[in-house]
């Protein structure tokens, strides 16, 4: 219920009480929120045309598909690496196994897996940052 629809004085209405900090006035309606948002907005750029909006959305979907594809690839690689590790463990259990070979091979396997996971994680972070920027452009444009 909006203030002007209620027969309450401003001093008695809990939503309309003013804040002590005049720099951040209390917002009482959606209209006020829009006004404050407009006043606090950065200098606006020209509105985005439909083709630009579609391009931004296509770009987001493309990035999503690439991330999913990379994740699937890493899962497959991980499954292969697990098999290699199981074979490596079977070999190390055999008498006469050279421990130095085991350590080097395991280190190579782990290094590769860590590198791939870090690449995916970096890509996820970039994606989140890009989507956030694109989302802002869509909202403001």
Provide key terms for this protein.
141 residues; mainly alpha; 3 helices; rod-shaped; disordered N terminus
Distance between the termini: 31 Å
* Helical residue percent band: 55-70%
Average of pLDDT: 77
N to C succession of SSEs: HHH
Low-confidence stretches: 1-41
Supply the number of helical segments.
3
**Overall spatial form:** rod-shaped
Q: From the helix content, strand content and strand pairing, which structural class follows?
A: mainly alpha
Strand count? 0
Largest sheet: none
Radius of gyration: 29 Å
Strand content: under 5%
How would you summarize what this structure contains?
With 141 residues, the protein is mainly α. The protein has helices at 30-40, 50-93, 99-140. The two termini are 31 Å apart.
Task: Outline the structure in words.
- The structure is a single chain.
- By secondary structure, this protein is mainly alpha-helical.
- It is 69% helix and 0% strand.
- It has helices at residues 30-40, 50-93, 99-140.
- α2 packs antiparallel against α3.
- The two termini are 31 Å apart.
SSE map:
Layout (H helix, E strand, L loop, with lengths): L29 H11 L9 H44 L5 H42 L1
Helix pairs in contact: 2-3
């Amino acid at each position: 219920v909006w203030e002007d629809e209620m027969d309450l004085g401003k001093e008695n209405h809990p939503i309309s009480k003013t804040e002590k900090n005049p720099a951040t006035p209390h917002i009482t309606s959606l209209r006020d929120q829009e006004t404050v948002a407009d006043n606090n907005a950065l200098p606006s750029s020209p509105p985005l045309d439909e083709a630009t909006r579609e391009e931004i959305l296509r770009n987001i979907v493309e990035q999503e598909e690439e991330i999913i594809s990379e994740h699937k690839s890493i899962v497959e690689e991980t499954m292969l690496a697990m098999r290699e590790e199981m074979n490596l463990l079977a070999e190390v259990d055999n008498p006469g196994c050279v421990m130095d070979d085991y350590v080097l091979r395991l280190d190579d396997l782990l290094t590769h897996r860590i590198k791939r996971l870090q690449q995916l994680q970096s890509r996820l972070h970039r994606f989140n940052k890009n989507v956030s920027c694109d989302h802002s452009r869509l909202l403001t444009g």
